[in-house]
Amino acid sequence: MLEFDGLQFPVFRPVAFNDRVVSRRKLTGENASPRQSFAQWDAAWRESEAERHDLKRGITADGGAPAPWAYSLLCGIYGQRAGQVVVAKVDTVNMQLAGYVHVGGLPIDVKLAPDGSVFYVTNQGRMGVSVIDPVAMKEVQFIPTGRGAHGLQISRDTRSLYVSNRLEGSVSVVDFASRSVVAKWVMPGGGSPDMLQLSPDGSQLWASGRFSAQVYVFDTKAGTLLARINVGWEDHGLTYFPNVGLHSLGHNGVYR
């Protein structure tokens, strides 16, 4: 049970986290090609990991101090009373709730914007994505994407955000620059795309099919469905191995 500002929030489902600021320049900068081999991506990741260890000592990749929300946990929390549906920020150093923002609906997955300025939170109940300022803990924008907005994945070039719309069988593509939907991939014959994972070169987006006992594979360039793979009932989290990083945290395809 978390308490803040006179309200109590039973923790029902933590969904994702950011424990520190990590530079993406060497992974996804302007000179990086989405067609690089896994070995090249892995080498870039290891260099980025060295920067991460500097950040643990309070040094950013650019020589400055960590962002105000560094060492924070962001999670969706569903309360027992109406209106207690929030995205909460937890201080992982002092182990206490540091703030929250009411978003309503059903917040699910969380991803940090490539520039580190905001967080994107899928909201299955509101059928879209909340854009959250992690310093002010305020919803600065809402992006409608489709019924059952659920999983998130960032493209390898960091220009786009993929959003699975689990209840309508589609994937929306959100442009980070404009914060708007620029494409929607509707699945022929329907489906229930849940959590997402990219192939190392970013050419394929894999999705678990929660209600279809399948895994789906999308072509990220054409926006077409390449394959349906029968796996078993209620498949949920997935990971693509090997991939960019050393360790998979599972479920929402996060590597570290």
Commentary on this structure:
The chain has 256 residues and is mainly beta. It contains 2 helices and 17 strands. The chain has helices spanning 25-28, 38-56, and strands at 2-4, 7-9, 72-78, 85-91, 96-102, 107-112, 119-123, 128-133, 138-144, 149-154, 160-165, 170-175, 180-186, 193-198, 204-209, 214-219, 224-230. The strands form 5 sheets. The chain has a 4-stranded antiparallel sheet with strand order 6-7-8-9, with no helix packed on it. The chain is globular, with a radius of gyration of 18 Å. The model is unreliable at 1-5, 7-38 and 48-63 (pLDDT under 50).
- In DSSP terms, counting alpha (H) and pi (I) runs of 4 or more, how many helices? 2
Judging from the principal axes of the Cα atoms, what is the shape? globular
- Which strand order does the major sheet show? 6-7-8-9
Kindly state the percentage of residues in helix.
under 10%
**Helix/strand-derived class?**
mainly beta
Mean pLDDT: 76
Sheet bearing the most strands, described?
Answer: 4 strands, antiparallel
Q: Could you tell me the strand content as a percent range?
A: 35-45%
Distance between the termini: 28 Å
Rg from alpha-carbon coordinates: 18 Å
Helix-strand string: EEHHEEEEEEEEEEEEEEE
Report the uncertain regions.
1-5, 7-38, 48-63
| Secondary structure: number of strands | 17
